[in-house]
Design a protein that fits this description.
Largest sheet: none
Strand content: under 5%
Structural class: mainly alpha
Oligomer: single chain
């Protein structure tokens, strides 16, 4: 899950948890909103950790050369 999807889940969860007052039979939209916000936070943290790890890696290219003298 990338940063964009995580922010989307945070926004959608906030809307469901705090702004929607209607209900669907058998579904607690406030709980669904909190679950989506939690998933968004976890996804955002994981995405930022992976982005930080990618920024600190080094790529080494090894070239083997053989000098053949005749």
């Amino acid at each position: 899950m990338g940063i964009g999807i995580s922010v989307f889940f945070l926004a959608l969860g906030g809307i469901l948890a705090f702004a929607v007052h209607d209900g669907i039979a058998g579904v607690d939209l406030t709980a669904v909103g909190y679950i989506l916000m939690g998933a968004g936070v976890i996804g955002l943290v994981v995405a930022l950790i992976f982005a930080n790890q990618r920024a600190h890696t080094s790529h080494v290219s090894v070239q083997e050369r053989r000098n053949i003298q005749e």
